[in-house]
Design a protein that fits this description.
heterodimer; A: 143 residues; alpha+beta; globular; B: 146 residues; 2 domains; 5-stranded antiparallel β-sheet; 6 helices
């Protein structure tokens, strides 16, 4: 798997979206926390999109469930890695039938977000919280 | 006109923030998605509280906790509200761009268990295991978000 270039912006579409977001809200650790399914993979990776290859609406089309999604852009891959992620790599979509959909080639994954053995829960959340703060909440994407 | 709208919104918030209150019928008929997209934080707060009213198990505890924290920090800012990824737990989160180093989160489990997390820069603290009551420590921490 090849690394996403450092200068490429990323998109993260976490679920579920919050019911209320105050003005000047800063995303927190849970938006980059691996889901139960993501924790089961080796290595543990969370799904992101290279925004130079995939638009927010294209990324949203890969989500099976309807409803609003949060769109969280990060300025660059290097910003995410500087905040604590170990690697950002392109990764084929798990469903091969989606490989020809618009924007499919922008699917990528961030590594290094799982809780290490013996890592206290607050320390793990703080590590993810610093990475989440690199992302910016721009809007809910209605589908 | 704006004053009238503010008065209606204020009345709606007052009704919806009562831990034992029920959402008035006229509020339940609102298009929650549309209200939730408002540019005004207080209007979006109404939509958030309406969503919370659908979660009977956690609503009373969450609103009681919020009232308790506001009693010690009256100008406490509004937290983000929303379900955890498993949809069983519910979270209140204080996290703002103008306070980039600070995050406080309280998570309520379906059985009323409480977990919390606080970060101030590189310092972090929080619960390792679910708790049965709100730690007193949170009163001091939440004052940082006024």
């Amino acid at each position: 798997m090849s690394d996403v270039p450092d200068e490429h912006p990323l998109l993260r579409l976490p679920t579920p979206p919050p019911h209320f977001v105050p003005d000047s809200y800063k995303p927190t650790w849970e938006v980059v926390a691996p889901s139960g399914k993501e924790k089961a993979s080796t290595p543990v990776r969370i799904s992101v999109w290279d925004e130079t290859l995939t638009s927010p609406s294209e990324a949203a089309a890969f989500r099976a469930n309807g409803g609003a999604l949060l769109v969280l852009p990060a300025e660059s891959t290097i910003a995410v890695k500087s905040a604590g992620a170990t690697r950002v790599v392109y990764e084929p979509l798990p469903d091969p039938t989606q490989a020809t959909w618009p924007g499919a080639n922008g699917h990528a994954s961030v590594e290094g977000l799982e809780r290490a053995n013996g890592e206290p829960r607050p320390a793990w959340k703080a590590r993810l919280d610093r990475i989440a703060a690199v992302f910016e909440l721009i809007d809910r994407l209605e589908r | 006109m704006r004053a009238l709208i503010d008065e209606v919104v204020h009345g709606a918030i007052e009704a919806l923030e009562l831990p034992d209150g029920a959402a008035p019928d006229w509020l339940r008929q609102l298009d929650r998605a549309a209200v939730g997209r408002s540019q005004h934080e207080s209007v979006r707060w109404v939509a958030g509280l309406l969503e919370l009213h659908e979660r009977l198990a956690q609503r009373r505890l969450l609103l009681s906790i919020l009232a308790e924290l506001r009693a010690s920090s009256p100008s406490l800012r509004r937290p983000a509200l929303g379900p955890a990824a498993d949809d069983a737990s519910y979270r209140l989160t204080w996290s703002y761009r103008d306070r980039p180093e600070l995050t406080l989160q309280i998570e309520l489990g379906p059985d009323g268990d409480i977990e919390w997390f606080f970060r101030d820069g590189d310092l972090a603290e929080g619960s390792e295991e679910p708790l049965r009551s709100l730690p007193k420590r949170l009163h001091a921490l939440v004052s940082r978000f006024s």
